[in-house]
Amino acid sequence: MTMSTSNPGGATARRTRPASKRTAVLLIKSGKPATASSVEIAVGPKTLKILARQPSWMRALMKTFGTALEKSRAIGRAVQFVVHVGPAGQSKITLVTAHTDAPEPKPAPPTGQLENALDAARSRGHLRVAEILSGPDMLNANQFAELIGTSRVTVNARRQNQQILGLEGAKRGYRFPEWQIGQDGKPFAALPELFDRLGRSPWAVYRFLVQHHPELAGMTGREALQQGHTTEAIAVAESVARDFS
Question: Which residues of 94-117 are buried (b: 16+ CB within 10 A; e: fewer)?
Answer without folding.
Answer: eeeeeeeeeeeeeeeeeeeeeeee
